[in-house]
Write a structure and sequence with these properties.
The chain is an alpha+beta fold. The protein has a single domain, classed as paralog of FGE (formylglycine-generating enzyme) (Alpha-Beta Complex), CATH 3.90.1580.10. Helices cover 22% and strands 13% of the residues. The strands form three sheets. It has a four-stranded mixed β-sheet. It is globular, with a radius of gyration of 22 Å. The structure holds calcium ion (2 copies). One calcium ion binds next to strand 8.
């Protein structure tokens, strides 16, 4: 009897091949979503041309806000709330769609939480680059939350929207200082010497905030959802549950591209560092290891 291929076997083989192809395709797609590739994207537009029209202007405190601004706890600045366009339609998929967001007034730490400040509250210093004046790093989201709770009303983790609003300082450019990288404003891969630096050594943004871009990534309170909501949002706090928390701003080991204001990445709230292998089994770049945070504070109702 001639040896005809068994049609079932052939279908099985075909199915296996298709399955493999689909699997490889999925891997290729999802690796686009890892922290490895995200840093490098969105760097090709003609930002130089737009740059010429941008002017850096510090945000002035309106006379009617002076009292509230003066009541900012030590180390915090008053952030006058407002509406802005959050997100970026021309970078990574999870930064779109651009949508209008309004946030209330709040206070925000001028600096990333330093190791000295952390140690005073928490009694230990987990940082890889020990220096009392440098940002604390290698802390989980829950560690940061515990610090916030211990700080008795003077600290909460900012929402993602508050973080982006504050980081922009009303700029609609790629960075708060314009569209081209400028190493006077941020510690990043090209100027950091592969380490964190004491806070406040680079130039501040329009609100007087330091190191919003670079030095260490910063935890926000939002659960990560790759899809931003559509339409106008007021004081958004993100989706009600998720697997990862949003971290923002890039770190000393990020490329210039990773420091763009709208860049989002995500980290499991129990991780102190970005894992070498994701939950999807992809090998991760080892460099994105440094996450810290800064505190926000809601303006007391009596103010
Ligand atoms: Ca930072
Ligand atoms: Ca990203």
């Amino acid at each position: 009897m001639p040896n005809f291929p068994n049609p079932d076997k052939t279908m099985d083989n075909l199915r296996n091949i298709l399955f493999c192809l689909a699997f490889i395709f999925c891997l290729a797609c999802s690796s686009e979503e890892t922290n490895v590739s995200e840093q490098e994207q969105g760097e090709t537009s003609d930002f130089g041309a737009i740059q010429e029209n941008f002017k850096f202007e510090p945000v002035a405190i309106a006379p009617e806000d002076k009292v509230i601004a003066d009541k900012a706890p030590e180390g915090m600045v008053f952030i006058k709330g407002g509406c802005f366009i959050l997100g970026n339609n021309f970078a990574q998929v999870d930064e779109a769609p651009e949508h209008e967001v309004c946030v209330d007034d709040f206070y925000l730490d001028k600096y990333e939480v330093t190791q000295a400040r952390w140690e005073k509250v928490m009694g230990f210093n987990p940082s890889k680059f020990p220096n009392p004046d440098s940002p604390v790093e290698q802390i989980t989201f829950y560690d940061a939350l515990e610090f916030a709770e211990e700080s008795k009303g003077l600290c909460r983790i900012p929402t993602e929207a508050e973080w982006e609003y504050a980081a922009r300082g009303h700029a609609d450019t790629r960075y708060f200082w314009g569209n081209m990288m400028n190493d006077q404003y941020a510690w990043f891969k090209d100027n950091s010497g592969t380490q964190t630096h004491p806070v406040g050594q680079t130039k501040p943004n329009q609100f007087g905030l330091y190191d919003m871009m670079g030095n260490v990534w910063e935890w926000t309170s939002d659960w990560y959802d790759a899809a931003y909501p559509r339409g106008k949002q007021t004081n958004p706090t993100g989706v009600s549950e998720g697997e990862f928390k949003v971290v923002r701003g890039g770190a000393f080991d990020s490329s210039a591209g990773g420091l763009r204001i709208t860049n989002r990445t995500w980290l499991h709230p129990t991780n102190k560092v970005f894992p070498k292998v994701t939950t999807y089994g992809q090998a991760m770049n080892e460099v994105y290891n440094y996450v810290g945070f800064r505190c926000a504070m809601t303006i007391p109702a009596s103010s």
